[in-house]
Each structure stands twice: as structure tokens, then as C-alpha cells.
Specification:
Blueprint (H helix, E strand, L loop, with lengths): L1 E4 L2 H12 L9 E4 L8 H20 L6 E4 L7 H14 L11 E4 L5 H8 L17 H4 L3 H13 L9 H17 L2
Parallel strand pairs: 1-2, 1-3, 3-4
Helix pairs in contact: 1-6, 2-3
Length: 184
């Protein structure tokens, strides 16, 4: 399992989600933006995407592999981030993601903190910045496990509670494409 993500909060969210499917952290290879990269973390993910997609394809010929890409939409749209990932592939002469590939795009709008606030029972919108205060990483890191368990429960019954951010609905659709393949 390969995870390409922006930061530690993305990593914590995805790894804890995968633990719900009995994946151990030692089964995961995580590549996240270095803390002092000198640029935006989303730019790191976009720059790395085509090479990680190539690596996924190489591994998938030998073993069951899944690539999970986590990148915030920020103030843009999920569709725009998808287009940027596609453009990164085209720029590197790498074929874009195919529907049958086990490549999951997880794109929170505005940021993953929006999803955490929603999972914590808050009413949210995708324009407010929830990255400060209660949902700042250091304050919510310990709460991520319980919030992700809530999400897992909703995913299992294929029903998010009312008021779910559209980007979370999109991520759930991505997850549905490969859900059965999480079970080894």
C-alpha cells in the first residue's frame, strides 16, 4: 500500500482509516511532504504524483498494491485538483489514472480539518478554514482515531450523516471503487 500525502494529519487520517480494515502500519509506505520543503505541500504531492503512479504500476504487476493520494483542494475545487493531477501525468508523459487501477484520490475541500469537524458532529461548509483552533493537528491528533472510526461506520453502511461535505461524498465514491480490495 502506497500513500502519497501532504502532511502528518493526512497520514494519521488515512493510516487510522486503513487500520479499520486490519492493515498494519508496517504494510504501508508513506511519502509525505518534508516539513521544510520550501513550498506548498499540495505542490509536493502534485510533483510526486506521476512518479508514484509509475511505482504503483510497477509494483502492481508483482503484488496486490493500492495507491492512495491525499491532497487538499484548498480554495479550489475537487475537480480542479483532479485536473492538476492529470496534468502532472501528462507533463511527465505518464498515462493518467485508469478506472480499473487501484488508485484512490482523496481530496478534502478546503482541508481535511473540514472532514474532522464534520465527523466531530459540527455543521461545516467547505469555505471556512477549520485548520486552526480545535481542529488544528496538534489538538486533534489524539481524536483522529475516534473520528475515523465514525467515518468507517458510515462507509460500512454507505451512508454519511446529513450535512456531509461534498468532497467527503466524493472520497467515499472513490473508496467504493476499491473497498472490496482492501480486504486481503
Amino acid at each position: 500500500m502506497l500513500i502519497l500525502c501532504e502532511d502528518a494529519l493526512h497520514r494519521a487520517f488515512v493510516t487510522r482509516f486503513l487500520k479499520q480494515y486490519d492493515y498494519a502500519e508496517y504494510d504501508l509506505r508513506v511519502r509525505q511532504c518534508p516539513p521544510r520543503d520550501g513550498g506548498a505541500a499540495e505542490a509536493f504531492v502534485r510533483r510526486s504524483y506521476s512518479s508514484e503512479l509509475k511505482a504503483y504500476r510497477s509494483r502492481s504487476t508483482r503484488a496486490k498494491t493500492i495507491l492512495i493520494v491525499v491532497i487538499d483542494a484548498d480554495t479550489g475545487s475537487v475537480k480542479n485538483r483532479e485536473a492538476q493531477l492529470q496534468q502532472a501525468c501528462e507533463d511527465a508523459n505518464v498515462p493518467v489514472r485508469q478506472r480499473n487501477e487501484l488508485v484512490l484520490h482523496v481530496i478534502p475541500k478546503r482541508a481535511i480539518n473540514t472532514w474532522l469537524a464534520y465527523l466531530d458532529g459540527q455543521s461545516v461548509d467547505e469555505t471556512t478554514d477549520y485548520a486552526n483552533g480545535r481542529y488544528a493537528f496538534r489538538k486533534c491528533e489524539s481524536a483522529v482515531s475516534s473520528l475515523v472510526k465514525r467515518l468507517h461506520g458510515m462507509c460500512e453502511v454507505e451512508q454519511l450523516r446529513q450535512g456531509a461535505p461534498p468532497s467527503l461524498h466524493h472520497a467515499c465514491k472513490e473508496f467504493e471503487r476499491i473497498k472490496d480490495r482492501f480486504r486481503l
